[in-house]
Design goal:
The structure is a homodimer. Chain A is of the alpha+beta class. The first copy, chain A, has 2 domains: 162 residues, Ribosomal Protein S5, domain 2; 129 residues, Alpha-Beta Plaits. Chain A contains 10 helices and 12 strands. In chain A, strands 1, 2, 3, 4, 5, 6 and 12 form a 7-stranded mixed sheet that branches. A 4-stranded antiparallel sheet of chain A has the order 9-10-7-11. Chains A and B meet through strand 5, strand 6, strand 8, helix 6 and helix 7 of A and strand 5, strand 6, strand 8, helix 6 and helix 7 of B. Strand 8 of chain A pairs antiparallel with strand 8 of chain B.
């Protein structure tokens, strides 16, 4: 017998792991979004409640990432099952740590359990990407996949979809600083060049190879050396007041490396202890204040194994 | 007291590890080049003997990769020490498995021991690159570094020079097939585009991240999935008769993946056993014969730890 209601959570995530732009993201331990699903008999997907969004999210299911993920799944499964969605946002909207993806991930994970669908992970990612598309105008998986699977996830290919879990040997802590700036994801994508110098691409993939080696072999200095992005950061960094000093301030406070989270405006830094990660957060917070940007600071261990969960 | 003569060897290598074009190469267990150095009192670097080159190599030191590596080192060290070089080539010239790099690597490794220079590895690579430059017209390290250090080496950056040893968990065997074709290295470089679509670059670095993960975690199917090159292979493959069928023939014979070795004309395939590697060699050899290309086949374990050595 199907359960009539189910509760799930899915964690925040950082996409565009610096040099590994568009292919690598990782999940955080906290914060996470929470979803409660209930079957209904009216054969509709409805959002019945949203909290934590300061009334910024639409209640129409097809305009909401969680709603659209479920609509997509039911459509592909030829199901007319009605579902009511309650969405409890704990990840601030537009914070650059995968808020929209976490809602979609939690929703599809809950649907899978509620209807006992036994969906393969790739299928869940695929449906959740349709949800993410509502928020970012782009079907990408580098927040969705870590949010669903936990840990550090490589999106090796989108067509066909192929994801790889990268075993992280190192114990890493992530500092995220979200300055009060608005960057439209679609705009941040539109300003990237459609072609890049081969020489820059080669430098970039040298760093990506070094980053993966550092992550899998617990070599923090190698991770730090590799955390440079020749492609997106020089362009997107200009949209973030104070970004020019972010890396140096983070390194001076003991961080391993730093970069832009997703397409910004949040920045992130990695450290090898929680103490350092807190220190880095304080220093970066002060840096943004100097640039007249109020900001929120999050510190979380990199989530090694915990993706979406049924509570 | 300095020894008056010394003998060293350095192994063959495969550069341009498919998707990891220009940044990743690996050493083979065999064949290798052999160098004997002797101090002389005439304050000159001289090549006194070359075997195995079918009289194709110049005896002038500055036109020879081994000679030039030594000239470069002595110049940087402000030394006027005279050196006589005997060079025993066991790696066929132009075979696409780092023949010129192995001679330079063996020479610089022997010089370091002969004169008790205690050079750091990066310095030896740097001098050997000056030798490699004589043969390829380009200072690159993706054959030199594996030949000196052994194993699979990432050239993360050329300026400043930074190399990273990639720990290979898997036991891999390499089949190299050298068809009787001539491809000029400088030409093979000149036909590459100077800029590439960002979308292709992203696909390429997704594969690179997967390749490194597969190598470090002993995941052969991941290594195979990652061994596709969107940048150089579509262009350089056209210079190699029969190349269009190489991957399929190799996979059909049980290989994990295949690609071009260096800038060609040799192709290589990886397998998880020596037996399969031999089978792959036979099938690829027949493929090239069908295209009227005589060929030589080499099978060697990927060399995990053994670079240049003093005998």
């Amino acid at each position: 017998m199907l359960r009539s209601s189910i509760k799930s959570i899915a964690p925040a995530s950082v996409a565009n792991f610096v040099c590994a732009f568009d292919v690598l993201g990782f999940a955080l331990a906290t914060p996470y979004d929470e979803v409660i699903l209930r079957t209904n008999s009216v054969k509709q997907v409805r959002i019945t409640k949203i909290t934590g969004d300061q009334n910024n999210l639409a209640l129409q299911a097809e305009k909401n990432t969680a709603g659209m993920a479920i609509i997509s799944a039911l459509k592909h499964l030829n199901s007319n099952q009605g579902i009511d969605i309650e969405l409890y946002k704990h990840i601030p909207l537009g914070s650059g740590i995968g808020s929209s993806a976490a809602s979609a991930a939690a929703a599809i994970f809950a649907l899978n359990a509620l209807l006992k669908l036994d969906l393969p992970m790739l299928q869940m990612i695929d449906y959740a990407m349709d949800g993410e598309n509502v928020a970012s105008g782009c079907r990408h998986a580098d927040n969705i996949a870590p949010s669903l699977m936990g840990g550090c996830i490589l999106v090796r290919s989108l067509d066909p979809l192929d994801v790889v879990s990268i075993p992280i040997a190192a114990n890493l802590y992530c500092t995220i600083v979200h300055p009060d700036l608005e960057i439209n994801t679609k705009y941040a994508r539109s300003i990237l060049p459609t072609s890049i110098p081969l020489a820059d691409a080669i430098k970039q993939w040298g760093n990506i190879a070094a980053l993966i080696t550092g992550l899998t072999t617990n070599n923090c200095s190698l991770i730090g050396n590799a955390m440079y992005d020749y492609i997106a950061e020089p362009i997107r960094g200009k949209l973030i007041k104070g970004f020019a000093q972010v890396r140096q301030v983070a390194l001076d406070s003991g961080a391993i490396g730093a970069g832009i989270s997703g397409s910004g405006p949040s920045v992130f830094a990695l450290s090898d202890s929680e103490e350092t990660a807190n220190k880095v957060g304080q220093a970066l917070g002060e840096l943004f204040l100097k640039h007249e940007c109020k900001n929120q600071i999050y510190v979380s261990q990199i989530n090694k194994n915990n993706g979406a969960k049924i509570l």
